[in-house]
Design brief:
single chain, about 180 residues, alpha+beta, 5-stranded antiparallel β-sheet, 9 strands
Length: about 180
């Protein structure tokens, strides 16, 4: 049924359905840009969730979800995450677990060599990464290194390293675990 903007359509009357109960269970704990956002009555010009997006014939959609557009997208196979991203400016919806894992991962990310030199050199030798890249400072000089292994080999590590920024001069050595 089509929804209008009167109390007739907009007041929740406590109805339940098996489909909505499943959807609620499957999306429990999901967040949008981390904190919970209440946007059902938001229409302020300073609200980032209310900014318009380009529509057909030069019209701008106000940032609120359109029931018929969302239904059409769903019928075409779009996920609810894709539908929300379209109507709310590319937001990313994460489960609480995904948000926690992503936040923790940010604490462990180090800059990778921009030339992907280690990855290319390891692949050329048939080696697989055995660690992330890591930095070592010795006598004031910064080096970047990464451990690699031959597939199926567990006793030896192949270590590649170079001075940070000198990606064309890689050095390798082998060490036993």
């Amino acid at each position: 049924a089509d929804l209008c903007d009167t109390a007739q359509c907009q007041v929740y009357r406590g109805t339940f359905s098996a489909r909505s109960d499943v959807a609620i269970r499957e999306t429990a704990g999901e967040t949008w840009d981390d904190p919970c956002q209440y946007v059902s009555r938001c229409g302020r010009p300073d609200c980032p969730y209310c900014k318009g997006a380009g529509g057909h014939n030069g019209q701008t959609w106000t940032g609120r979800l359109c029931q018929w557009g969302a239904r059409y997208m769903a019928d075409q196979g779009a996920s609810y995450r894709e539908i929300l991203a379209l109507y709310y400016g590319g937001v990313q919806v994460d489960t609480a677990l995904e948000a926690a894992i992503g936040a923790e991962a940010q604490k462990h990310i180090i800059p990778l060599n921009p030339a992907a030199a280690f990855e290319k050199a390891g692949a050329a030798l048939g080696l697989l990464p055995a660690s992330r890249e890591y930095d070592v400072v010795l006598d004031g000089q910064s080096y970047r290194a990464q451990a690699y292994r031959s597939p199926g080999e567990r006793t030896w590590q192949h270590i590649v390293y170079c001075k940070v920024g000198d990606w064309g001069n890689l050095r390798w050595f082998k060490r036993q675990n």
